[in-house]
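Subject: Sanity check before I submit

Could someone independently write out the structure tokens for this chain? I want to compare against mine line by line before I put it in a report. The sequence has 155 residues.
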Amino acid sequence: MAKSLFEQLGGTYHEENGYLIPDLRLPAEEEQPIGVWGECHLHYLKEYHRGTYINLLTSGRLNAYLAEIDKQAQERFERLVEGMKQAQGITEQLKEENALEWIGRINNIRACAREIAVHILDIYNIYGTFMIVTLQFHSWNMIKNFRCNISRTFA
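---
Independent answer below. Compare away.
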């Protein structure tokens, strides 16, 4: 019996209930932790760019791809938080003097940075590849002076 193209290319079959079922396996991929940014991009790929998702999955590169996106996005998020802390004068001294105010302001900065990061980081890009795209700020002062309103219920 002549071999099928699948067998010629190294494929194998197993028998189930009298039918030959091809043994299809995804390539081995190193497990890497994926955080919130990688999960957001994974959801986006599954929902809107199914072809790209399938290509990355079947080539064994999906996990590494998402881990790299998550790493870059987290680094940018942390830089945003640090820049906003400096711009608003939030220091360790404030933490020691008034812990509740410090917590409220830090939580506010993190929420603002998360919102900015979604717009600055092109997590949901149109081509399915990760690129960092910055907004067209005229200067760093626009980000530095960006402040979200915080409620002063703890004061």
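---
OP: Matches mine. For the report I'm noting this point. Strands lie at 13-16, 19-22, 121-122, 131-132.
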